[in-house]
Amino acid sequence: MTGRVVCFGELLLRLTAPGRELLLQTPRLEVNVGGAEANVAVALSHLGHSTAMVSRVPDNALGEAATGYLRRHGVDAGHVASAPGRMGLYFLAAGAGLRASEIVYDREHSAFAAATAADYDWPAILDGAGLLHISGITPALGPASADLAIAAAEAATAQGVAISFDGNYRAQLWQRWDSDPPAILKRLVAHAEILFGNHRDISLLLGRAFSGDGEERRREAAVAALDAFPMLRLIASTARHIDDADRHRISARIDTRDGSAQTDEVRVASIVDRIGAGDAFAAGILHGIRTGRDLDWTVRSGLALTALKHSLPGDAALFAPRDIDAFMAGELDVRR
Prior knowledge:
Distance between the termini: 35 Å
CATH topology: UDP-N-acetylmuramoyl-L-alanine:D-glutamate ligase
Strand content: 25-35%
CATH class: Alpha Beta
CATH architecture: 3-Layer(aba) Sandwich
Order of helices and strands: EEEHEHEEEHEHHEHHEHHEEEEHHH
């Protein structure tokens, strides 16, 4: 898989309550640039891959800050357009102990959500691309955004560009409009070669439950998805067990038509920030695929990057290949 990675989705500002406070417990918020697809672009850039972001931001200081963030992290922002409108936002109160984290979205009528198909010249955007990465967040924003995501996937298929799709199911967003998530998501997954999603995502797509537990259930779901979507060749997923807000246990898995690769479970303690961990996992998997590694190394790369992301504030994983190698080697002491 050669050529640059093009990521399509909404750039957001994340406004986080300081420390472990509730939202506006004190009148302060910390600001980070985020967005699922942008997180993948930034993480892959730090891993040495050529990446580009496709999006729309408001023509004001907020949009300029988001675009500047991409450029500082080596992501080509030439296809991030400026337009009238507002910046998409989300607010985060990080969990603590047995209190879960909470997210509040404020994304309606953003500059990105107001875009139409005519705003994107996909043949030009995808020229020289080897992969288009999209997620289930974009179609969840509304019918126009759903049409945009489908148009992007169809254009990539027409140009012979591979697609990776992250389910990223966001119930809060889908429930804001008269949506049919399974029907829309099926149209997108039908174009994908790589799917990031677990048995719950596949149950939503196929409208059926899967028996058993653990690895057996995940394999059964993966086989069903691979049978249902002929273009799919690889499904990657994580399993997360939450002891409390500071301690999670995570394992990772890849399924193909010919077999699977499964990691052991790792314990991630003293969590700093778990937001964006799924995007880090996707980047770690794509890194393995694009560097020609085998399934075992690739799934461990995904696990490494998602585990490391929990140690870093902000949305994106800012780690280099040497950090993945160190994680795999079990190096926890100071590197001098």
